Amino acid sequence: MKHLNTTLINFQKITDPRGNLTVAQSFKDVPFAIERAYWVYDVPSGECRGGHSHKSCKEIVVALSGSFHVTLDNGDEHETVLLNHPYQGLLIDIDTWRTLDDFSSGAVCLVLASEAFNEDDYIREYGDFLQYIRGKEK
Hints:
Elements: E1 6-10, E2 13-14, E3 21-22, E4 36-41, E5 49-54, E6 59-65, E7 68-73, E8 78-83, E9 88-92, E10 97-101, E11 108-113, E12 122-123, H1 126-137
Pfam families: FdtA
Protein name: WxcM-like protein
InterPro entries: QdtA_cupin_dom, RmlC-like_jellyroll, RmlC_Cupin_sf
């Protein structure tokens, strides 16, 4: 049985009366070179995002504003994490199915990715994901 390989990272939070600042640097705060950054916002009530896995891309997911849940699945175990602090990021390793849902109004999700976009890296059907994972276990 595989165990979920995720980590909640607390980035440095620099407090200031004028407003707080948080920094994420490759290989210092983030355990990989950041090749791509993207953000998801204006998610309608009841909708979900994600619904895929990656073969080689690692990601850190951050709730820059508001909150949402990230449900992780490695084919054996499931775990749901609430993200609601802009100074925390959830490191998601390869071979982990992820679904993001329950977005609060005004939520903004930032993703820092270890790879540039490559459609061939995605597994978009859950059945295909399970078959892929079972094939790697042999």
